[in-house]
Amino acid sequence: MPRCAVKSCMYYKTANCTRDKKKLHLFRFPKDHDRNEVWRALLNLKKEDIFTTSCVCHLHFSEKWFDYEKSPFRLHLKRDAIPILKPEPVD
């Protein structure tokens, strides 16, 4: 099962990718080299840390980056979404 690639994330090494019985959404790194480099730099990751299956959990994105109009059944990121290293506290 994929996990969050951010080393400081609570879901970095856990096999249980659920939070309060809600599914944790994972997003793959962009295939575009420039955007991939931006994500990697913002998350303090080395090139060796990123694989083709590496993902970032939804906790590393603010609400403004989610596209709720695309599908009511699945969470999607906007094309220009940028992650943050430290997720905001969840109540």
Structure description:
Helix content is 11%, strand content 11%. By secondary structure, it is low in regular secondary structure. It has one domain (1-84). The strands form 2 sheets. It has a two-stranded antiparallel ribbon with strand order 1-2. A two-stranded antiparallel sheet has the order 3-4. The longest helix has 10 residues, at 33-42. The protein is globular, with a radius of gyration of 13 Å. It starts with 17 loop residues before the first strand and ends in a 34-residue tail after the last strand. The mean pLDDT is 83.
Strand order of the largest sheet: 1-2
Number of strands: 4
User: Number of helix segments?
Assistant: 1
Return residue spans where pLDDT drops below 50 for at least 5 consecutive residues. none
Shape category: globular
Mean pLDDT: 83
Strand content of the residues, in percent? 5-15%
